[in-house]
Amino acid sequence: MVLKGIDIASYQSVEQAGMSGIDFCIVKATEGVSYVNPKCDPQYQTAKKAGHLLGVYHYASGGDPVAEADFFLKNIQGYIGEAVLALDWESGDNASWGNTEWCLKFVNHVHAKTGVWCVIYVQASAIKQVANLSTICPLWVAGYPTNAPSWDVPEFMYSTAPWPVYTIWQFTSGGGLDKNIANLDRAGWARLTGKSGGTTPTTTKTPVSPAQKNLETLASEVQQGKYGNGDARKNALGQLYPGVQAIINHRADQANSPATINTLADQTLAGIYGNGEDRKAMLGNYYKPVQEAINAKVAPQQRTYTVKSGDTLSGIAAKLGTDTNTLANKNGIANPNLIFAGQVLKY
């Protein structure tokens, strides 16, 4: 099942939150450590009265992530457990844009306070900035292939790696309203809020010190029966479980090597095995093939767009899920207003 919905802020009306024909509404609540959307609660309550599934989001300004998380939580107390919580990570007015640790600190603090993991909103071209959230936070990706004002959903043309799929896709802002689809049913949405005993997909924290035991040692201990089976093993190993299990599977079937390396690469990209010497120690003999797989995953894919008559650089950037400055810099365009039909842009 696919849900259809909108996200709104103060520049949308209260009435729009209750519009017909949609399943969910995500309302901007806060920004930085001082701004509260003055329409937040009226919009939220209007959406709720209309029977919509609910969400609230914080727009990151890039200050102290813990302070911003506390400000967000302070102003959404009445919505926790009922609404999906989301972090909006964009370049505009964001002093920490490009910092790959900021969002992790924010969502960890929110989770510590609420038991719920935030959905992470990011433009398609900047997913690598939040790749270390891929095993704990659902992905809300923004990318506009057409940016049309209609509800006609275009073909998805972006990579979501290291997430296997997106949870929510904001596919257009055409007509002054952000439109989204979600790969969820209503029960799935409830799980993201923490309702019905569910929480955002996550893993338990490992009681094992990576500095003491690497994945291969842990795999051997699992095979010796030290950590039990099923849920007992998962709970004991926590976030190390997928990597340890991949190695066990590899030992049982050498043909499984590509799948093992892929699993370890995804876990490494999520930040579970650290960096530098810590990563080498954790991965042991798997370090080299895993690093090669990571390099292949994150290597920039050269794509091009041919400018058409009537195109603007800002319009093209919106279609491609990037921003005007990034597109201009990548193509050596000094004046963003000067592009011509037939020009080939790299993105």
What labels would you give this structure?
347 residues, alpha/beta, 11 strands
Strand order of the largest sheet: 1-2-4-5-6-7-8-9
Q: How would you characterize the largest beta sheet?
A: 8 strands, mixed, barrel
Distance between the termini: 32 Å
Global geometry: globular
How many strand segments?
11
What is the arithmetic mean of pLDDT?
86
Q: What structural category arises from helix and sheet content?
A: alpha/beta
Count of helices? 12
Order of H and E elements: EEEHEHEHEEEEHHHHHHHEHHE
Q: Could you estimate the helical fraction of the residues in percent?
A: 25-40%
Question: Can you walk through the features of this model?
Answer:
With 347 residues, this protein is of the alpha/beta class. Helix content is 34%, strand content 15%. The protein is built from twelve helices and eleven strands. It has helices at residues 40-49, 65-75, 102-114, 186-193, 215-223, 230-237, 241-252, 257-269, 276-283, 287-298, 313-320, 324-330, and strands at residues 3-8, 24-31, 35-36, 53-59, 84-88, 119-123, 139-142, 168-172, 178-182, 304-306, 344-346. Strands 1-2-4-5-6-7-8-9 form an eight-stranded mixed barrel, surrounded by four helices. A hairpin with a 3-residue loop joins β2 and β3. α11 (313-320) crosses α12. The chain is globular. The two termini are 32 Å apart.
